[in-house]
Design goal:
Rossmann fold; Immunoglobulin-like; 13 helices
């Protein structure tokens, strides 16, 4: 079993690359399912057919299936009891019912429900590879760690509450807040257990990979820097970077010269930012990529004779270690830029990032490194070069 998550800024090409990857995998003989949580139903546009909220067989492909997750339906059918209880809490505080339901649809609900669907399909054993075309944000990923944060006693404590549910109903009019029923408590326990199984799947480096997609522009790359850091913090293996929509070298029109010069700069920056990840380049196609023919062409160009199910890289590109003294952030140096590092010239904060200038045999190289949230409240102490790595130390 392999699970491949694709993530990137809106418009980076996640859905198209996900579909092309899934198509390539099915052509190699893998029973493949691609899951989309994009409310714009981009996956239907890519395959040029209607993809349903249940696994839909892609026409003329024996081993390729797709599903468009309907988060509202999923929540109603599987977690409706919990949602109704949350709504009742808001209504008890005087909120209008419509507003209560809007608030009860928690942030990142679409992505969160998509993750829960992964557990369902992994445990069904019907597929060899699952491709998810929109990975959750860092905030939603925190939900995976809820069981760990609460500890093994969480489910036990919730179970202990069950016999008290009827007693709590008696004091409900006094406290003015609805108390959870036995059914709500039971669903809470079930959800915690699913989250625990989900975490085990996602942090399994032999099974799950996160792949980063960016366009060669500043905003897209910066977005992935943050995602890359969060993935490292959550112990999720990032195995590949893809720079999409690169203007081909054969395009010589002077109108695009400025764009091409900027792209070369950002492509070099991306290789440094995501080192030691392998980074692939994918050209900007002449037309919108839709339909099996173009998806197959894109998949062949991206992976050539490689198996997309392979694990391209294992390890943490950025390591974060916390101690009693503070925090240590270890960053592999951008080897594509230089073969030898001479000295560390400058390290300073730049907003939420760290600006690092290193002297090399080809001149000074500047890189921006995203910081974990906890580092924002710490003081930058010192930094040093050690064994082709940059070690940065923060203190309380």
């Amino acid at each position: 079993m392999r699970i491949i998550f694709y993530t990137g800024k809106g418009g980076s090409g996640k859905s198209v690359i996900s579909c092309a990857t899934a198509l390539k995998l099915s052509e190699l003989g893998y029973e493949t399912l691609v899951i989309s949580s994009d409310p714009a139903h981009t996956i239907s546009d890519a395959f040029e057919m209607q993809v349903q909220y249940i696994p839909t067989k892609i026409e003329d492909r024996d081993k390729l299936w797709a599903i468009q997750v309907d988060p509202l339906r999923e929540v109603r059918e599987k977690y409706g009891v919990i949602q109704e209880y949350i709504v009742s809490l808001f209504k008890s505080k005087g909120l209008d019912e419509v507003l209560a339901y809007e608030i009860a649809a928690l942030p990142n609900m679409t992505e969160f429900v998509s993750l829960l669907k992964v557990v369902e399909f992994v445990e069904s054993n019907n597929y060899d590879v699952i491709v998810l075309d929109t990975v959750p944000s860092g905030e939603a990923l925190k939900n995976i760690y809820l069981p760990s944060l609460l500890g093994s006693t969480a489910a036990k404590l919730i179970k202990m509450m069950a016999p008290l549910a009827n007693i709590a109903k008696v004091v409900e009019p006094i406290v003015g807040v609805p108390t959870p029923s036995k059914e709500v408590i039971s669903e809470d326990i079930k959800l915690l257990e699913i989250l625990g199984r989900l975490k085990n799947i996602i942090v399994n480096r032999e099974v799950t990979s996160l792949r980063l997609i960016a366009n060669p522009d500043a905003f897209s790359i910066q977005n992935l820097r943050r995602t890359h850091l969060l993935a490292n913090l959550y112990d999720i293996n990032v195995d590949l970077g893809i720079m999409n929509k690169v203007i081909p070298e054969k395009v010589r029109d002077s109108y695009f010269k400025g764009w091409k010069d900027a792209q070369e700069k950002y492509l070099a920056e991306a290789e440094a930012a995501f080192h030691p990840l392998p980074v692939k380049r994918l050209r900007l196609f002449q037309s919108e990529v839709k339909g099996l023919k173009l998806l197959s062409e894109l998949g062949d160009e991206l992976f050539r004779d490689e198996d997309p199910a392979r694990v391209y890289f294992v390890g943490k590109a950025i390591k974060v270690t916390e101690s009693d003294l503070g925090l240590e952030v270890v960053v592999p140096l951008p080897l594509p830029f230089a073969s030898k590092y001479k000295e560390l010239c400058e390290v300073e904060r730049a907003g939420e990032d760290l600006s690092v200038v290193i002297s090399t045999d080809i001149g000074e190289v500047r890189n921006f490194i995203p910081l974990p949230t906890i580092a924002h409240i710490m003081k930058l102490d010192h930094a040093k070069l050690l064994n082709d790595e940059l070690h940065i130390y923060f203190i309380h």
